[in-house]
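Supplementary material to the annual report.
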Amino acid sequence: MSAKVWLVGAGPGDPELLTLKAVRALSEADVVLIDDLVNDAVLEHCPGARIIAVGKRGGCRSTPQAFIHRLMLRYARQGKCVVRLKGGDPCIFGRGGEEAQWLGERGIETELVNGITAGLAGATQCAIPLTLRGVARGVTLVTAHTQDESSLNWQALAQGGTTLVVYMGVAKLCEIREQLLAGAMPAETPVAMIENASLAHQRECRSTLMAMVEDACAFALKSPAILVIGAVAANPSCASDPARQGALFSVAHVGSQHA
Amino acid sequence: MSAKVWLVGAGPGDPELLTLKAVRALSEADVVLIDDLVNDAVLEHCPGARIIAVGKRGGCRSTPQAFIHRLMLRYARQGKCVVRLKGGDPCIFGRGGEEAQWLGERGIETELVNGITAGLAGATQCAIPLTLRGVARGVTLVTAHTQDESSLNWQALAQGGTTLVVYMGVAKLCEIREQLLAGAMPAETPVAMIENASLAHQRECRSTLMAMVEDACAFALKSPAILVIGAVAANPSCASDPARQGALFSVAHVGSQHA
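Predicted assembly:
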């Protein structure tokens, strides 16, 4: 029996952002354990597989991580080809590392397949390059989720000179603003708040660090959403400001806009 | 005439990490402008297209960016479907933002297609999760390339609490070490140096912040390579150290290892 579990990133939502390797894993799957945030449309690549929903949406009823672990182990020990399908990338806020380690300790071989992470896809769809020569020499992806008790130094991040992309930050906007201001990030720093990144119903709200809490409220911003904080997120309508022009370009494919 | 340029991420090297959308763009292409670091194997998806190599490898003879701009514009104005194929992702150190802006100013529609960035793929192939609950609550991608004169505060990045992934850092190892130590990053912080990320001839060298310069020299580390700096990059052979176990898991698919 070839016990094996694929830990596969399904990308941000747009089913065309699946990789060829993810498609191959799905086509070989006997069992697919699928997260809440994965677009069901990708299941066209595994018509014969048994599909099990194991969502863990923040604040809602959800499947405990330990149960997901045991499910993967049980099917793998039955010799089934198991695909654990996650939103985005399995190693960027996806617990892919944890699951691979847990399975590895029990003798189960795993293979990780990268996916496009939501922060990148959402920004691209809003015509925001996360890095831009002369403007942003790097990008930092962080989660605001409270279940991770590892330390994050927001005040240092405010000073790093990278574009900041925050996942799961909708409920933490006030704290994020307070910490970044305390780190001397300018109050007028541009912010883009992007709901349902890369999906047809993606929505974006452009704001600033100082105004983002009130603007998100007026916009009725809902999870899942990502925040892009930095000069590259400048509002396209501010094109007359030369300092912001670097961030601007036109794309064919943008979600509904809100300035 | 439907003038359009696709700015497409070809991923890190492994041709299976191409997205379905990239495959579609290639299949529609009349002309493909291909960067140095893109694996030629992906050209199987555009058998009828004219292929033009426009590499810009650091330190070598290369195609000026202005010439690439004009080539794209010329073919687009001829009504050709143009694909500009870049390593990794077009908006992460890929100049996708610049090219889209330049073309947009000339009335050419562009569409960006995300790709898997080399830092992510290389780390995954080395069984390093870039984020890990309780260990690394985020990841920072930066380039050490000197052509970007935008400011980067290494000392702040040293204190941010994220995994640090450095692109194009091989020639800058001494400076990077100096800056991060000055930012109070511990000398024993684990470092993985990954050459030819995600390709069959990927090589990895595990070290520490203090020892990385000498270890890279002994290993004969060459570009292209990425550095992963942080607790998640701990050497698997140090599994007896409980502080490092979080970073460890087994994967089916790792490149040749060097501890």
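The helical segments of chain A are 20-28, 65-77, 96-104, 118-125, 154-157, 173-182, 212-219.
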